[in-house]
Amino acid sequence: MKTEKFIDVIGNKVVYNTFNGQQDLLNKIEKALAGYINETHENISFDERIVPDSSENDLDKESYNLFLKESNMESQDFIKILSNKFNVLVKDRDTYKFTTAGALFFTENPNKFDGIDAGVKLARFDGTDKKIFIDKATLNGSLLKILNEIESFFKRNTRYATKIIGFERYDIPEYPYDAVREAIINAIAHRDYEIKGTDVTFFYL
Fold first, then answer.
1. 143-156 vs 177-190: helix axis angle to the nearest 10?
2. Which residues pair with 133 in a beta bridge?
3. What is the edge-to-edge ordering of all strands in the sheet holding 120-125?
4. Gyration radius (Cα) of the chain, Å
5. What distance separates the 2 farthest-apart alpha carbons in the chain?
6. What CA–CA distance (Å, rounded) separates 41 from 35?
7. Do the Cβ atoms of 120 and 150 come closer than 8 Å?
8. What are phi and psi of 106, to 5 degrees?
9. Which are the contacts of 48, defined by CB distance < 8 A and separation ≥ 6?
10. 78: helix, coil or strand?
11. Closest by CA position to 58, among listed 106, 101, 115, 104
12. 21 has a pLDDT exceeding 90
């Protein structure tokens, strides 16, 4: 039979997948096509790629409010701001989908989407041999929330020296937080979010 011959020819060159009903098959085809389009359009950067399995319902309101606060913007309809002004939410027929940048900054858990790995690991050790933890954290939320949590982690684990000048007391941190924050932002900005299992890691001794 022609079908059997066709299977014999391609049998060693394909990966089989299963589906549960017509709608499941259509969803998988749509997702595969979106991935193919993203891969074949070389002029589309990783940040601009559409996340096929996302929707406007994935918006994390806490992250969005943090963004408004940091940007000194008044609260507005998030679709107007994220779609029309910043292009991180893209119209797709009857719904909206996040770009990779949008998913990283405005969804509760970017790691749930295929092709994105946005974890950050923090650890403070007792001594330089890295055997005894004083504090540790694994962060997997939006980048906006991760930055806030990193700041809290470093501030609660930073030792301070006290200096008296005249009648004023000054607490001097062990490490200048502005320098620490710049290093953190650089690491987060320049990591490859497509590679699984490569969390940004900070050790604090």
1. 150
2. 125
3. 133-139, 120-125, 200-204
4. 23
5. 96
6. 10
7. yes
8. -125, 10
9. 87, 99, 100, 101
10. helix
11. 106
12. no
